[in-house]
Amino acid sequence: MKGAFRTRGLVLHCTDFSETSQIVRVFTRDHGIVDVLAKGSRRPARASSSFPAPFDLGGWYDLNFRIRSTQLHLATESRLVEGFDHLRGNIAVWLEAVFALDLLRTLFSPGDPHPELLKESLQYLMLLGHGLGRRRLRNHFLQSLLGASGVLPNWNRCNECEAAIEGSAEVIIPAGLVCAGCSGSPSLHRVDATTRNYLACDWTREWGLVPSWEVPPEAVQAGWDLLRSLLLHHLERPPRSLRYLRV
Q: Do residues 132 and 212 make contact, with C-beta atoms less than 8 angstroms apart?
């Protein structure tokens, strides 16, 4: 891949490179994750500036960049489309957003596009700002994330015998969900029928319906505990942002 490109992307991480520049990791619509050097992005803006302001964490940008021979490409121009400022007025909500950005930055490699996951990430950030159903939204996002990573279990079918599961089940990490007849290890994660049904319905639910969905708090908490276990097994190390979540 050579040449100059124009795309849109979500900023996952920013690092000051010098007094005037930044290194920015961006989850782009067309190219997946890219790392760019934005020379002069921290200078005071002028009418002719290619960067009207420094890149901001969690911002959704129009971005022009030029491919270089290294993995650090050159940003040539940017324009902020959506800053998600509504997330920054509530520390608990902002920590949820930072956790999501951290996971996207950690789980996926540069150059691996996931346009549907990017779309869902933007919906998640937009809905978080309403302050409703925050924990249900988090679980929904984690299912999208694990699904895109290829490690989300099928909540309705046994991974071993492929039979439909009616009641409770067990989860073998990372193999998947197994019915009572196929289980046999004492180290499995028990999933009761309420939690399993909640996760199965949540996986196919539209984003706009998640915040107002009435779900027993115990099922939401059990869903989070299970999804977190799956996530931590998939990661090399827990993200630092996890410890700051207000569970």
A: yes
Q: What is the pLDDT of residues 203-243, one digit of tens each?
A: 999 999 999 999 999 999 999 999 999 999 889 888 899 99
* Cβ neighbour number for residue 194 with a 10 Å cutoff: 15
Quote the crossing angle between the two packed helices 193-204 and 217-234, to the nearest 10°: 70
Query: Which residue's structure tokens are 């996760």?
Result: 199
| Residues forming a β-bridge with 189 | 171
Complete DSSP assignment for 55-111: --TT-EEEEEEE--SSSEEEEEEEEEEE--GGGTT-HHHHHHHHHHHHHHHHHS-BT
Is 241 in contact with 102 (CB distance < 8 Å)? yes
> By the 8 A CB rule, do 211 and 136 touch?
yes
Burial of 118 (0-12, 13-18, 19+ CB in 10 A): buried
> Rounded mean pLDDT of 55-60?
96
Q: How many residues does the structure list for the chain?
A: 247
10 contacts 25 by C-beta, under 8 angstroms: no
Distance CA 159, CA 177 (A): 6
Q: Look at the domain 4-85 and name its fold.
A: OB fold (Dihydrolipoamide Acetyltransferase, E2P) (2.40.50)
Q: Give the start-to-end residue ranges of the domains of the chain.
A: 4-85, 132-240
Report pLDDT digits (tens) over 84-123.
999 999 999 999 999 999 999 999 988 889 999 999 999 9
Residue 137: burial class (beta carbons within 10 Å; 0-12, 13-18, 19+): buried
On the question of pLDDT at 173 being above 90, the answer is no
